[in-house]
Specification:
mainly beta; 1 helix
Length: 133
């Protein structure tokens, strides 16, 4: 993983990592077998007063596969990705965000100096169709 914080937690027991810049990368090992994959993740945008909507654009192995607006709060989001973007084995996922800001600069009383885009609890890639014959 590149561009993410170490694991953090809430008092309720949730764990997450922050994407700490406008671009973050991770690798995922899959065997798509030509199938489209649904990339699902639970995420929360970094928000501040008068912030524009936070968007996430997903690239799989440098192919732009889709985008989503991250809703406020920790929520599940999904992007359908074409099977042609994936290869068997290790794949690179690049997450591009509309912004990454330091809470200390944007939130009254905020002290965190890190630039933050969104917090992620989990991410998975699931096949949505049978393998081609």
């Amino acid at each position: 993983m590149w561009g993410f914080s170490s694991w953090e937690g809430t008092s309720e027991g949730d764990t997450f990592v922050w994407a700490q810049s406008r671009t973050a990368r991770l690798t995922l090992d899959v065997d798509p077998d030509g199938r489209d994959l649904l990339v699902r993740f639970r995420a929360m945008p970094m928000r501040f007063p008068e912030a524009p909507p936070q968007t996430l654009t997903l690239f799989v192995n440098d192919a732009k596969t889709g985008a989503v607006t991250l809703e406020d709060g920790m929520r599940v989001h999904a992007i359908l990705t074409p099977g042609a973007a994936w290869r068997r084995g290790t794949n690179e996922l690049r997450l591009e965000f509309a912004y990454a800001e330091a809470p200390k600069d944007r939130i009254p009383g905020g002290a965190d100096p890190r630039t933050l885009a969104a917090a992620f609890d989990w991410l998975e890639a699931l096949p949505v169709s049978p393998p081609p014959k």
